[in-house]
Design a protein that fits this description.
The protein is α+β, with helices and mostly antiparallel strands. It is built from twelve helices and ten strands. The chain has two domains: 204 residues, CheC-like (Chemotaxis protein chec, 3-Layer(aba) Sandwich); 71 residues, Surface presentation of antigens (SPOA), CATH 2.30.330.10. Its main location: other.
Length: 333
C-alpha cells in the first residue's frame, strides 16, 4: 500500500471511536469507496478529446451553412440545416441507431485513407425528391421501393451538395470528396470493425413542414493522420501564419496568378420563341445598344468596366475607357 494511504495510530483510534459511538457507519464507508470507482466500457473507448470534438463541430457548422445555401437554390425553397450534436461511439452502436432502411452514401475524402458514411433520413430524402419532381416537398417513406430514376435523381442531388465538404474542411486539410456507393441497408455497409470508434455529427434538416436528420459518420482511422490539426493550438498557429507578412505576400502572389473570365458584352435583345424558331443564316438581331455607346465589360459575370472595340495587330481587342459604377455606389462610398 502506498505510504499516503497508511493511517496513523491516532487516525485509526478516531475512526474506531466514530464507529463505536454511531457517528459513522460501515455502510457510509463502503458508499464512499464506491464513489471512488468508475465503470469503464472498453467497447466504448473515447479516442477523441473534447477539444477535437469541438473542432469537428465547428467544421460541420460551416458545412451546414453551405448545405443550407446549396439545397435552397437547388430545390427552389428554403432549406434549413444546422448541427445538433457531435458524439463519439462504436460503429456498431451507430448502425443500430439509424433506420433499417434509409439513404446511405459512402464517401472517400482523398487524400485521407478509409471512407466516411453519410446517412440521410428517408423523410428528408423524399421531401427533396418531391421538390425536384415539381412537388411541394411532401414526404412519402417508401425507401425499399426506390425506382432507378428516383435513385439517380437523389444521388445527383446529394453528390453535388456534399461537394461542400471540400470548402468546409479547407481550414484543416484540402480534401476531394468522392461518392463511392449508394445503399439502403446499413447492414450491407461494413465501413470499419463493429468496435471501431467513430464520430457522428448530426445535422437537423428542415424543408417545408418536413424535418429529419442527416448523420455524418467518420471513423477514427480516417481522421488519425490529421488528429493534431483538430486542436486549438493548431488553429491558433494557423491564424498566426495568416497574419505573417511573408505568408500574406505569398497569398497575394498566388491570387495574382488566378485566372478570371472576362466578357465584353455588345448588348442584349429579347425575341419571342416564334421569332427564334424562324431565324436563319443571314438574319440580323437588333441589340439594345447604339453603335457609339460604350460596351460593358464583365469580370466573373459582374460588370466592372466600360470599353470600346478595336484591333491590335489584326486581333480583336477591347480598350477600357472607365470604371462601371452602379447607381448608389457613390453614395455608399
Amino acid at each position: 500500500m502506498p505510504s499516503e494511504e497508511i493511517l496513523s495510530q491516532s487516525e485509526i483510534d478516531a475512526l474506531l471511536s466514530a464507529l463505536s459511538t454511531g457517528e459513522l457507519s460501515a455502510d457510509e464507508i463502503k458508499e464512499e469507496e464506491k464513489q471512488k470507482v468508475k465503470t469503464y466500457d472498453f467497447k466504448r473507448a473515447l479516442r477523441f478529446s473534447k477539444e477535437q470534438i469541438r473542432s469537428l463541430t465547428r467544421i460541420h457548422e460551416n458545412l451546414a451553412r453551405l448545405l443550407t445555401t446549396h439545397l435552397s437554390a437547388k430545390l427552389r425553397t428554403y432549406v434549413q440545416v444546422s448541427v445538433t450534436s457531435a458524439d463519439q461511439l462504436p460503429y456498431e452502436e451507430f448502425v443500430r441507431s439509424i433506420p433499417k432502411m434509409t439513404v446511405l452514401y459512402l464517401y472517400e475524402l482523398t487524400p485521407l485513407d478509409g471512407n466516411m458514411l453519410i446517412e440521410i433520413n428517408p423523410n428528408i430524402a423524399y421531401a427533396m425528391l418531391d421538390r425536384i419532381l415539381g412537388g411541394d416537398g411532401t414526404s412519402v417513406n417508401k425507401i425499399d421501393q426506390l425506382t432507378d430514376i428516383e435513385e439517380e435523381l437523389m444521388t445527383n442531388l446529394f453528390q453535388s451538395a456534399f461537394k461542400s465538404l471540400r470548402d468546409a474542411w479547407e481550414t484543416v486539410i484540402q480534401v476531394e470528396p468522392e461518392m463511392q456507393s449508394f445503399e439502403v441497408n446499413p447492414q450491407f455497409l461494413q465501413v470499419v470493425s463493429p468496435n471501431e470508434t467513430v464520430v457522428v455529427i448530426s445535422l437537423n434538416t428542415i424543408i417545408g413542414e418536413t424535418s429529419g436528420m442527416i448523420n455524418i459518420c467518420i471513423p477514427h482511422i480516417v481522421l488519425e493522420p490529421i488528429i493534431q490539426k483538430l486542436s486549438v493550438s493548431y488553429w491558433m498557429q494557423t491564424e498566426e501564419k495568416a497574419e505573417d507578412p511573408e505568408n500574406a505576400e505569398a497569398i497575394r502572389t498566388q491570387l495574382k496568378r488566378s485566372r478570371l473570365p472576362i466578357i465584353a458584352e455588345l448588348g442584349q435583345s429579347e425575341i419571342t420563341i416564334e421569332e427564334f424558331l424562324q431565324l436563319s443564316v443571314g438574319d440580323c438581331i437588333e441589340l439594345n445598344k447604339k453603335i457609339d455607346e460604350p460596351m460593358i465589360i464583365k469580370v466573373q459575370e459582374v460588370p466592372k468596366f466600360f470599353g470600346q472595340p478595336g484591333k491590335v495587330n489584326k486581333n480583336l481587342a477591347i480598350q477600357i475607357l472607365d470604371y462601371f459604377e452602379e447607381e448608389g455606389d457613390e453614395a455608399d462610398e
